Amino acid sequence: MPKDFFWGNSVSSMQTEGAWNIDGKGLSVYDVRPATEQTSDWHDAIDEYHRYDEDLDLMQAMHMNMYRIQVSWSRVIPDGDGEINEAGLAFYDRLVDGMLKRGITPMICLYHFDMPLALAKNENGFMSRHTVDAFVRFGKIVIDHFADRVKYWITFNEHNLYFTDEVFNISGYTQGAKTVDDLYTIFHHTMLAHAQLDAYVHGKYADVKFGGMVAATPVYPATSKPNDVLAAQQIDQFLYQNLNEAFVQGHYDHQVLTYIKDHDIDYDHQAGDDEILAGMHADFLSFSYYQTTTINADKLPADEMAPNYYLNYGGEANRFLATNEWGWAIDPTGFRTLITDLYNRYQVPVFPIENGIGIREHWDGEHQIEDDLRIQYHAEHIKAMKDAMFIDGAKVLGYLGWGLIDIPSSHADIEKRYGMVYVNRSNHDLKDLKRVPKKSFYWLQTVLSKNGDEL
Ligand code: BG6
């Protein structure tokens, strides 16, 4: 493996930090999301705000050399567009300096679904151009503050989710009829925000790398029926390649633009927007990868529907793949195909920055958790990535696992664990939050001590 290859861990702030109302942090939409019987709230997460030294020590012990964190907008600018909270920035100073001290390269993500509550209520989140301006201001403040120490940046976690109906949960959208026009408007606004920060970074900091990030869930046609193949092509183009093309080439692709025109979609496209989009120039294409999915065109309703919604109706299980308890298909070959395809298409370095498997686990307070399935999952995915690199010739910057110290999953359920370190809490009982290495911790330690050359 290349000597400068990045191996590491990746998280969001709301799933990790806790300290939701400490040191001047403002509220985000996630801070007011109530707990349910099955899920916790987000208030404590794994309390990394106070335990970051211990967590960084564990990452260092695994020989990781990168940690992707998120800088929470409402921690740095409590209401999203007003005063700066210096205590919030100071926390990230401590975290970043702690990484650098241990030889861990930081990557910063600027938005992971947690809109400041004030902007959600007053501006309807990213429906408003005011929110775009506020985000660009926030991004510039954070970039200027950290650019001397942080050289890898992304804006929106899983940016293509802003082109699916998930957008209404993750963009601060609180009022409206959730129309296709609204969906495309929010997507366009977030792309304008990304493009402005991309141009800002590249104009000011020659040594800083800035990239796009998508949730890569490649779609297989359910059969070789031409309609299944066509549906898979359309999803691929609308939900992935449209974004990757934009990140690299600075414009939306013609298939999506033709759809917009033919269906009179009002996506708040204004004079000057195309020039802003043209500022995009990704240094790398990053993505999360957990699974592949499958589309059956026969299940799609007869009425004409935006391809953005196909998977809601036409998705089905792939009988050739095993799944975890949550039905997520385990597919290392899909990982290789994806990496190879992305690099072939764009010839820009690719960067898997989230990968892993959710497993229900229980610690008895004494014995090590034997997570052989997790070891197998990561070993097979790393092997597939190496095949993409050394057989197919793809350039890959690194491999980051998701939540390698347990964190609550995105629906705030700590029982779906991804970690190689167990965190001792349940949904409603914080217990002692003790960090306990699992079997996979020692496996990864050995693998990374040899830079991934032996699995
Ligand atoms: C990614 C998100 O889609 O998947 C994370 O960026 C999320 O926030 C992760 O936690 C795993 O999904 P889940 O639902 O299993 O937590």
TrEMBL record:
Pfam families tied to this protein: Glyco_hydro_1
Cellular compartments per GO CC: cytosol
Molecular function as annotated in GO: beta-glucosidase activity
Keyword set, alphabetical order: Glycosidase, Hydrolase
Gene3D superfamilies cross-referenced by the UniProt entry: Glycosidases (3.20.20.80)
InterPro entries: GH, Glyco_hydro_1
Superkingdom in the source lineage: Bacteria
Any one GO biological process: carbohydrate catabolic process
Family membership: Belongs to the glycosyl hydrolase 1 family.
Protein name: 6-phospho-beta-glucosidase
Organism, as annotated: Lactiplantibacillus fabifermentans DSM 21115
